[in-house]
Amino acid sequence: MSKLAGKVAIISGSGRGIGRAVALKLAGEGAAIVVNDLDEAPALETVAAIEAAGGKAVACIGSVTEDGFAERFVQSAIETFGGLHIIVNNAGYTRDGLIQKQTDEQFQAMLDVHVIAPFRILRAASEPLRMFAKQEAAEGREVIRKVVNISSMAGTHGNAGQINYSAAKSALIGMTKTMSKEWGRYKVCVNCVAFGFIETRLTKPNDDPDTVIEIEGKTIQAGVPAAMLGALKTMVPLGRAGTPQEAAGGVYLFCSPESDYISGEIVIVGGGISL
After folding, report:
1. Domain locations along the chain
2. Are β-strands 8-11 and 86-89 bridged in parallel, bridged antiparallel, or unpaired?
3. Strand ranges in 139-229 using DSSP code E only, listed in sequence order
4. Three-state DSSP class for 62?
5. For this structure, is 93 an active site residue?
6. CA–CA separation, 38 vs 13, rounded Å?
């Protein structure tokens, strides 16, 4: 039996990379998925892949930083599939630079996408989740819901050249701890996954054309200097970067019924790396 049958999940940034892998994993376990991406094409491709495998999915296109997006995202789940059980705050990108070279706008951009956007999504979900919990309690039922916030080892350990990204990903840990306390009464488990070195377009060599990202009219150069990639891999005890599917497995752990009594925790998915 599929462990997430009857569940509805919203996953930000799920048209590509880790988010797409999470969407496919949860859908494969029976969840209906609201797929989000900044761009329409990758979101629709993920929806099509889920449907081709016999699952249910719908796309909610747009930037998580847009005014009104959070409410639209949450309502997409409720109006399309009749409920909301899993929230994965995954959308994000990097804009690296040493502190003396960082602008206020560059720093704020990371806070907007990695902190403000998840906050708004959780706030938009708060009243529907409260009402669902109230109704279920009146019926004598206990339904456990899940929130998984996606952080990074840059947030748990820091990383040179990423003061903006590290600060934002650290904030998600505080958000996770707080919401696990606020939402326990609604039977919502709130946890955090911090990724290490995972193979995505953000960790490709920065001379790869795929690492040039268009974000709201701005061209962002992501990626990692090619000379650093070999060194990064040698730091991982398992000897390699993780795949998006392996990263998705870490998220699934906190979405599965086996984690129904785990909340407020941070798990590092990094192949044993300790910076």
Report:
1. 8-201+239-269
2. parallel
3. 145-152, 188-195, 212-215, 218-221
4. coil
5. no
6. 7
- φ and ψ at residue 223, rounded to 5 degrees: 90, 180
Residue type, 73: F
* Of 93, 165, 186, 252, catalytic: 165
Q: Is 131 helix (H, G, I), strand (E, B) or coil?
A: helix
Predicted confidence pLDDT, tens digits, the chain (275 residues): 699 999 999 999 999 999 999 999 999 999 999 999 999 999 999 999 999 999 999 999 999 999 999 999 999 999 999 999 999 999 999 999 999 999 999 999 999 999 999 999 999 999 999 999 999 999 999 999 999 999 999 999 999 999 999 999 999 999 999 999 999 999 999 999 999 989 887 776 666 677 677 777 777 767 677 666 777 777 899 988 899 999 999 999 999 999 999 999 999 999 998 76
Rounded to an integer, what distance in angstroms lies between the CA atom of residue 261 and that of residue 143? 12
Distant-in-sequence, close-in-space partners of 85: CB < 8 Å, separation ≥ 6: 7, 8, 9, 31, 143, 145, 146
| Residue 246: how many other CB atoms lie within 10 Å | 17
Fill in the amino acid letter for 118. Answer: P
Residue 135 burial (CB count, 10 A): 11
Which helix (H) or strand (E) segment is 33 a member of?
A: strand 32-37
Dihedral of alpha carbons 75, 77, 82, 83, sign: negative
Output the pTM of the full model: 0.93
The CA distance from 54 to 201, in Å, is 28
Domain 8-201+239-269 falls under CATH 3.40.50.720: yes
| CA–CA distance, 38 with 191 (Å, rounded to integer) | 25
